[in-house]
Amino acid sequence: MHGFLGSAQDWRSTIQYLPANVEVHCLDIAGHASNQHLIFDSFEQYSSHLMDAIEALSEPNVAMVLIGYSLGARLIMHGMSAPLCEKLNIAQIIIEGGNFGLTQQSDREARWRSDDAWARRFESESLAVVLHD
């Protein structure tokens, strides 16, 4: 799973290094790339949607490895800590740049203010200008 503002295509250069007998599925997270039309109200819904998509691709008795970066990692971690992955035969997860989020209310409020300021910039400025910062 890719990170924020990414897409399934972000993994293209990495996939070439996997063994030929490994079946690979790269998914776009809801709100991104081919799934940009899917917008949910909660992190739980985003994670649940992702786990449902993974379940639809899974094969009985075939163990899988989930790999996530940043937002993708956090969605996987959330799915693993909630009962969202019970039906999946997961052998391993690989997390890069993921965390469970902020635990202190004051930190969450400060992050909310920061995220709100970024969201306002995304609405009013070009993507190139915002991402340059």
What features would you highlight for this structure?
5 helices, two-stranded parallel sheet, 2 strands, 2 domains, globular, 133 residues, 42% helix, mainly alpha
Q: Tell me the distance between the termini.
A: 25 Å
* Silhouette: globular
Strand order of the largest sheet: 1-2
Average predicted confidence as pLDDT: 91
Q: Count of helical segments? A: 5
**Overall SS class:** mainly alpha
Sequence of secondary-structure elements: HHEHEHH
Can you tell me the residue ranges where pLDDT is under 50 for at least 5 consecutive residues? Answer: none
User: How much of the polypeptide forms β-strand, as a percent range?
Assistant: 5-15%
When the domains are counted, the total is 2
The description of the largest β-sheet is: 2 strands, parallel
Portion in helices: 40-55%
Radius of gyration: 16 Å
Count of individual beta strands? 2
Walk me through what this model shows:
This protein is mainly alpha-helical and 133 residues long. It folds into two domains: 8-101, no CATH class; 102-133. It is 42% helix and 10% strand. The chain has five helices and two strands. Strands 1-2 form a two-stranded parallel sheet. Helix 3 links the parallel strand 1 and strand 2. 19% of the residues are buried. The model has no long low-confidence stretch (mean pLDDT 91).
Strand and helix map with partners:
Elements: H1 12-15, H2 43-57, E1 64-69, H3 71-81, E2 90-96, H4 105-124, H5 127-132
Parallel strand pairs: 1-2
Helix pairs in contact: 2-3
What's this model, at a glance?
This protein has helices at 12-15, 43-57, 71-81, 105-124, 127-132, and strands at 64-69, 90-96. The protein is mostly helical and 133 residues long. It has a two-stranded parallel ribbon.
